Amino acid sequence: MFKKTLLAAALSTAALSVSAYEVGVNDEYEVEVYGVAAISAVNYNITDNRDADTGYVLENESRIGFRAGTNMTDDIHVFMQIESGYVGNAGADGTLGARDTFIGLGGDWGQVRFGRVLTPLYEIVDWPFSNPGLGTVFDWGGVSGHYDRQSNQIRYDSPSFNGFTFAASTGRGDSSVKDSNFYGASAKYTFSTVTLMGAVEGGSEFKTGDGVDDNPLGTDNFSYIAGFEAGLPGGFGIAGAYKGESLSGTSDKEQDSVSLIAQYWNGPIGVKVGYAVNFDSKEMGIEQDDKDSVASIQVMGAINGFVPYVRLAARMPNAHDDKDIVARVGMEYGF
What we know:
This protein is mainly beta. The protein has a domain at 109-334: Porin (Beta Barrel). The chain has helices spanning 2-25, 120-126, 135-138; strands spanning 30-42, 57-60, 63-71, 77-83, 101-107, 110-118, 149-157, 164-172, 181-191, 194-204, 220-231, 236-248, 253-266, 269-278, 282-283, 286-287, 292-301, 306-316, 324-334. The protein has a 16-stranded antiparallel β-barrel with strand order 1-3-4-5-6-7-8-9-10-11-12-13-14-17-18-19.
């Protein structure tokens, strides 16, 4: 019995060694390991209930991913990606596949991805218009009528036509609900140092889940965004966007938002300021007193791939007249 166990162990070790060797010498695929090491300290955790402040936190947004690809034919390149989520406080959020994870086909005609990717509209909302520190308002604040990173999606991205590109996608919202689907498209045009961009997204049975009051069953969603980004002489740059979102069905809601950003770089040191506001929403045509806004300033460096930064943000949550001052100190490094 002991000899059989040793033999089984030896065979298992040999099999693992062969597998590792085969993977190591397989030049047929281009494999890349990449990621971001990112951690920041925040003075306190803001919740809807100010009395529930839990004190400072260390937010660990580190993540890792893997990419691979090879040519299937002279005109078609097959590629894949799997990326983990942010590590989070207890590590539970760092599930492999939580961020963009897909299989794709690409060529001179563009690329199409199948799986979990950003929607065309959210890609613009997220960057550049939710940075620095504007996401609490412009991204997930107020009436949210858009998806963000969504599974069960097919997305096409075009090649550049003299500075013009477009993307289109469709997919499932809640895969457990038969008619929960969405569609979206975006377009960008770059000339000189200016990029104009816009996107739309709509769907049915939006974020239905258990049919809670905020997003009851039978809700349709529609969102749009139009914006620009421009590089100016002397290291300056500006960006701005206007966004509208609406939910219709059992309870009709709509809200408009604005994001404005300016930055200045002098060598490796940069300063970025931003302001975002969700205007008073309307519910069943009646204006609500729920305007909220955030203003922020960030000083950062770009030093041998490291990005240390300090950020101050003044947030005015809805239904409050005074501001929350949030301080964040962090460091990021991409590899």
